[in-house]
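Journal club prep — side note

Before the paper discussion, L.F. wants everyone to see what a predicted structure for a comparable chain looks like in token form. Sequence:
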Amino acid sequence: MYNKDAKELKGYIPYGTKVTIVKGPYGPFGEGFRTLKPGNIGSDVFAIQRKLKELGYYNGWCDGKYGEQMTTAIYKFEDANNIPRTYYITESLYQHLGFIQYE
């Protein structure tokens, strides 16, 4: 979204309205699932954090940054679901978390 787009929205969306800006045809996942690893940032990381929080594995602030707290949450989720530990989030882990990509 560009500044000119934000200015346009301001003209017809009431002040204080929460908006979500998504990217690409797969919403927060842009062009599809990417393999995530510590240090990544983005709307896809934010979506994973929200899901892990919803499931009770993530206690941190959802900020879209794949850091130490998220790694710990991933490990907890993997352990609880008998999934071999890895800090990489691949398509398989997306599916275990309940994310499905439609084409």
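L.F.'s comment for the group: DSSP finds four helices and no strands in the chain. Keep this in mind when we get to the figures.
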